[in-house]
Amino acid sequence: MKKISVIFCVLWLSIGLTTAQNNSTQGAAGLGDSYFPDLGNGGYDAEHYTLDLTWDDITNKLDGTVTIRAKAYNDLTRFNLDFEGFTISNILVEGKNADYTREGRELEITPTIRLKQDETFEIVVSYSGVPGDNVAGYYDVFARGWTRYPNGVYVASEPDGAAYWYPVNDHPLDKATYTFKITVPDAYVVAANGQQQQVVDNPDPTTTYTWETRDEMASYLATVNIAKFKRVTTVGPHELPIRHYFPADQADSLTKTFADFPDMIAYYETVFGAYPFEAAGAVVADTRLSFALETQTLILFGKDVLVGQTDAETVIAHELAHQWFGDSVSLTQWKDVWLNEGFATYASMLWLEHSKGQNALVRQMNTYYTIIASQGTRYVPPGAPPKEDLFNEGVYLRGAWTLHALRLKVGDELFFKIMNTYYDRFKYGNTSTTDFISLATEISGEDLQPFLNQWLFDETVPAKPDQTFKP
């Protein structure tokens, strides 16, 4: 949590703590998200995770030790982590054995000493098991966390799957930096978030890969990918390191598929602002996936999404745009997910306009409007999707149309100033729909709340505006 959003996030966490627990020394079991009240935990800020994991490719078993550096907001005699499945062998708090109980995804820890307000403390959790064992169910296919497939492993955890593979404060309000130390059989390569720091060939037939992030990230964006990858490197704007991890036998074709990646970054920098992180790239799992996920600095794709697909360029542009909107500018509550998906969808349309011309944008937006209008109530208003259908197509397509309609209303100069200012003001922090509407009103000089509320919340889709672009 950085910059302007720090005060708000601390306040939000404190509110979640005091409203959920009468005793301020007991960290709350959730952060008060209106859709997922049990996600995250109160009383502390997780600052850094070190994930030291050893993977068995035959059994998919993980042996893990996760070390968390955290800062207490209050004096604490008890606090929670989100963690489901696995067998815990030991928990240390400040180097001393701690008592713990488990119920569902709630891991409640009672240290032997009172943790002091504003002081940093260390938690070490040691565990083992097969990811997914004894887990009741998943929100969706992209929320399973650590997932084994025939040729390797990928990790996708949106919105609540991080707790299925490591102990965590599992909500975007509590971002942290990460170190990954992943030990695998020698035949495999590991790709994770941030940049690779070290590769150690161990005396036994294993290799340990160490990756580290410079910038904080939300827990659902943490990823580990294990396969027989080929690493393909290039550079982006300002010598930005770009490293892709492709299945070795598909590396040549995938390199062509991702050829525009540096140009996309350069274009998005002109309309949103500087790329926010220390590195960029993609990892392609050697299996068919029904999704792609914007895991921070290393975007996850499946081979079916890319190879031979005519819309690969749009998919890549969408996921790359999330590095600005979703990863750097993160959600305060999951109900506002259109701020991720609507923004990324429209950003991919801006790339289409940049690369193919404005007529291409208009044609595609007309197609989207026809789809939205024909689906009726199946495509929900993007501002408040149902909890059980958070990623409804209305969030994507009508969310994109909300931004397109705003652009047509205020003109290009003000629209792109709104987008750039929104990113700059909330980068590396958290935001809400209310924040965006307030900022758009501020920049445009007119009250845009009624207009944006129509597009975001009305059951009836607003009439399609005249697509005459104003400077």
Describe the structure.
With 471 residues, this protein is α+β, with helices and mostly antiparallel strands. Among the domains are: 1-145 and 155-184, tricorn interacting facor f3 domain (Immunoglobulin-like, Sandwich), CATH 2.60.40.1730; 331-457, Neutral Protease Domain 2 (Neutral Protease, domain 2, Orthogonal Bundle), CATH 1.10.390.10. Helices cover 30% and strands 26% of the residues. The chain is built from eleven helices and 21 strands. The chain has helices at residues 5-20, 251-257, 261-271, 303-306, 312-321, 338-356, 358-375, 393-410, 412-426, 433-444, 449-457; strands at residues 44-55, 62-72, 79-82, 87-93, 96-97, 99-103, 106-110, 120-129, 145-149, 152-156, 177-185, 189-192, 195-201, 206-212, 224-227, 229-235, 241-247, 282-285, 299-302, 330-331, 430-431. The strands form seven sheets. The protein has an eight-stranded mixed β-sheet, with no helix packed on it. The chain has a three-stranded antiparallel β-sheet with strand order 3-7-6, with no helix packed on it. The chain has a two-stranded antiparallel ribbon with strand order 9-10. The longest helix has 19 residues, at 338-356.
Looking at how many chains there are and whether they match, the oligomeric state comes to: single chain
Helix-strand makeup class: alpha+beta
CATH superfamily of one domain: tricorn interacting facor f3 domain
Helix-residue proportion: 25-40%
CATH class of one domain: Mainly Beta
